[in-house]
Structures are given as C-alpha cells and as structure tokens.
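quick one, 371 residues, struct below
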Amino acid sequence: MTDIEGSCEPRFAAFREVFAGLLGTCDVGASAAVFLDGEPVVDLWGGYADVGRSAGWGRNTLTAVNSTSKNMTALCALLLADRGELDLSAPVAVYWPEFAAAGKQNVLVRHVLSHTAGLPDLAGLAAVEELYDWDTVTAGLAAQAPEWEPGTAAGYHALTFGFLVGEIVRRVTGRSLGEYFAQEVAGPLGADFHVGLSAEHDCRVAPLIAPLPLTDEFAAGAPLGADGVRRESAGPAVRVRDVNSVAWRRAQIPAVNGFGNARSVALVQSVLANHGSAAGVRLMSSQGCEPAWQEVFRGDDRVLRTPVSWTVGFGGFGGTFGWGGWGGSLVVSDPGARMTVAYVMNQMIDRDRQDDNRGMELVMAAYSGLR
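---
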C-alpha cells in the first residue's frame, strides 16, 4: 500500500480510505482535499510524481489540471462582477468592441461564461503552437460568427472559454487572466495555483501520464458534434506531450493550462462554497457568489452530446457546482454545506475506454464526514 501523507480529521476517515484505495490501484500519484467553511479538514497526498515511480509526490507537487482550470477562470470574472467592474448581463462588445463583428453584438458576458455564446470552436487553427499566440487567437474569435443564436443553445467551449473570458478580463483590467488570478485571487489566499507556470516552479511539476496502453500521443481530439460526427473545425488536438511541454506551461490558455494540487484547487474554490471567504480572507460578497450555482441553461450540450446544466461559469450538479479536467482531476463545491472537494492526479484515464469515477468517489465519501 502506498504511503499517504497529510492530515485528515477523524470524521473523514472514509474519505481517506477511498483515497488510499485509489493510490493502491489505479493512481500513480495524487492529492485530495476537503475544505469546510473555508478551512481545510482533509489535505492528503501520496504516490509518485513520475511514471518510473522514482520520485515521491510531495506536499507541494504541482500538476496540470486541464479543464479544472475553467473553475479558476470563471472565478476571476465573478470577482470582477462583484467589484462592479464587469456586468455579466452586458454585451461582450462593451468591453471588447471588435467582438461585435459577424453578428455577435448581442453576445452577453454570461453567454460566454455559460457555454451558450455559440463559439465552441477555434476555426482555422491546426497546431497546438498556435494556441500560444494570444492576440492572434482572440482576434480570430472576434471575427468569427456564432454557430447558433447566443443564449438559445449550449456547446462546451473547451478551449475558447479561456480565451473569451481571459480577453474580457484583459480589456477590463489591463492584465492577463494569469496575472489577474495571481494578484487578486491566489496572492491574497496564499493559494499555490497558477494559470500558466513560470520556470521557478518547473522542478515541482509531476508530468501527466497517458492512459495505458496509450502513449503521450494520446490526445483530447475534436469532440462530437450535434450530428454525432467529429467536429473537424474544433481546433488543434492537444496531446499529453503538449501539456507536459515547457511551452504549454509558459503560455496563457486559461481554459486548460492551470497548474496546482488538490489543496490549492479546493482553497480557491472554497471562496464560492463559503459565500465569499476562505482561509480568513474575504475575497467577495456572498451575493457575488450566487451566479456560480444559479442555473442558466439546462438541456443537451451540442458538443458534449449529453444533458448538462450550466451556471455562470460552472457545471451544475443538483445543489453543487464545479468542473473537471481531461484525464480525471475534479473540483465540486456545495454552497449549502459550505464544502469543496478537490482531486488532482497524474495518471490519466481515457473515458472512451474506461469509466473514471475516481473524483466522484471522493466527493461522495466526503459527505460521510458531514453526518
């Protein structure tokens, strides 16, 4: 059995057991955390940071969390709205005038945050390296026409979400999404989470491990469209080796290139679960958190090909909200219980070949500690 380090309040013993079971079976290295009332009640890690199992996963190990990054990007927008600097119901073009082109004058900020803006694809982009050019990508999005009338349908904005929200944040604040997050969220909270990663942290990164028997060529390919066929214009297919590259770490791709561990993910998202504060820091008002759990769309997602509930920035799951990342990372927040659960790992699972319930098993186990 892999050694587990960290802390766990006795009432969350079932959570620790589930985590131990994952490390003893399908996981190589991972971290898991539970925050309650904005404070940590579980902070666990264990296993190995590399596929060769030669380096241990430490307290401060970081890894790529892929689309779990969207939770952080959405929080930045809600924080700006809470501070009166961004109107979620205003047209995007109020802040980004060029965006009004090609019939997008009525696309609202909340449409972008709820995957209903009609811009799920990065048209014309073929190589991952093109994602690293912020100005070119955002100019392309400003010129694109929406695929449907904004607000009437949803389609997961896998990569475009971060560029759209990030450019709105940049137009409002003059700072990149990564800079704004670092200065206004991570800094005040003391959260070790990064949207894009600087060189000083490279030594702490646990590379993602492709699902067996696949290799680092394993890619997040173009998702299915409404007709059930692959979306050829969805943009470049991101491979595991891309996510593990230095170029990816240095870029700004706010939908998908966040780096952290379960402690930092749970800490940041517990701000919303705890109605505006965490770790003794009041980051926003209680009212400003409410869009995170208020449903704005329910129905079939045209990209994911499954029924979904979207809030302003998050997936809605009954009375909870959050989102997960390619390969298995996950964060779920419950504002009623004021609880956030996060799971971050390096061993990916290909959901096309195998069910991946790791994160949800931990979420369900966390509720046993509330009884």
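The two ends are 28 Å apart (CA to CA).
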